[in-house]
Amino acid sequence: MYVTGRYPLLVGAGAVPVILGSVGGIPAWAGAAAWLGLCLLLLGIDVLAAPNPRQVSITRAGPTKVLRDQATQVTATVVNTGTRALRIRVRDAWQPTAGAATGTAVIRIEPGASGRVITSLLPRRRGELRSAGLAVRSAGPLGIAGRSTLIAVPGSIRVLPPFTSRRHLPSRLARLRELDGNTSVQVRGQGTEFDSLREYVRGDDVRSIDWRATARASATMLRTWRPERDRHIVIIIDTGRTAATRVDDGVRLDAAMEAALLLSALAAQAGDHVHLVMFDRAVRARVTGRDGAALLPALVDAMVAVDAGLIDTDWDAAFAQARLLTTRPSMIVVLAAHDDPEASRGFLGALPLIPAHTHVLVAAAQPEPTEAPQSDAFEAAARERARWDADRMVTALSRAGVDALSASAEDLPPRVADRYLALKALGRL
Questions:
Q1: pLDDT of 39 over the 60 cut
Q2: Radius of gyration of the chain from its Cα atoms, rounded to whole angstroms
Q3: Which domains does the chain have, with CATH numbers?
Q4: Model-level pTM greater than 0.90?
């Protein structure tokens, strides 16, 4: 049962007859009691006269997956299984982060007919978002009360990472094609594969001359090279407490996911194998053995339900998990924040566990520097201290032979992709 706004007005309107009755000699308390009794009687009659809202059958339809911050719609079809016409208010009970449009839908359904309730959603959080059911209200003929119930028709929608860094992919793929020999650009260096033979021209590296081919031909022949394929790229995403730090409009974990998706898409096009582990003190997600078109869907599906935990990461166990993914990684990308060498001793101590001849890149999203008001000395001092600690950490990583970079949440994915391409161009990957 529920009461509309008309019922308090009805009760308040009784002040007039009570006052008039008291003037005519009727005690005020008796007049008030009589009016309240009448109001309660009308309330009961209106509730009993309201159609039963449970005499409906509801089915759901709509997408099962959607990107975060992408508008979508879900539809509930309501069938009147009773013998009376229904005029009902229906609200789909989605959780707040689903971004369901506020308000209720009013529909009239004849017996045996059906109506539709369309709810617009704008999900603001990754993961599985659910609706407990549909709240249905039917009003009585007087409009002062009615019946209400919750029809348990559970609904859910899987909200995926948005992969907004996808816009950087075409330009990086063009550079990759240049490195891969689809244009006139050819590279030579450690760890490259033979591509083809061509005639030597002035300015070429004489170390690439193929003397056997030259002896068979009438001109000096030169070997051209292309970046190696079938490299193994291991991506470790830290899901510990530092991943929950606010960076720009999101958290570090979301920025790390964007960087991992862009790098994976690029590496898959380059013919490399990508492995992913999301870890703090336990494996939160793992993807391995997926290549080509199946890689990105597997990564996105694995990332959906992972959130940062308020615990410190066990880096010995994290690198042990990386070794289980592949025994010969060519590059390990650690997407984690290490702002202070003293607080990152566990991470620095675990670096010797990484196999030799493996390039290690540590990348982190940092808040964009902003000018603090002069009156806010504490905020300015804290920002300066954070910048100083980050510089000390980069120095410590460099001494350990680790490549380190930091950028804003928006710039981190393209910078990680650019570092991967730079290693390809140098023949180190």
A1: yes
A2: 33
A3: 2-49 (no CATH), 56-160 (2.60.40.10), 197-225 (no CATH), 229-425 (3.40.50.410)
A4: no
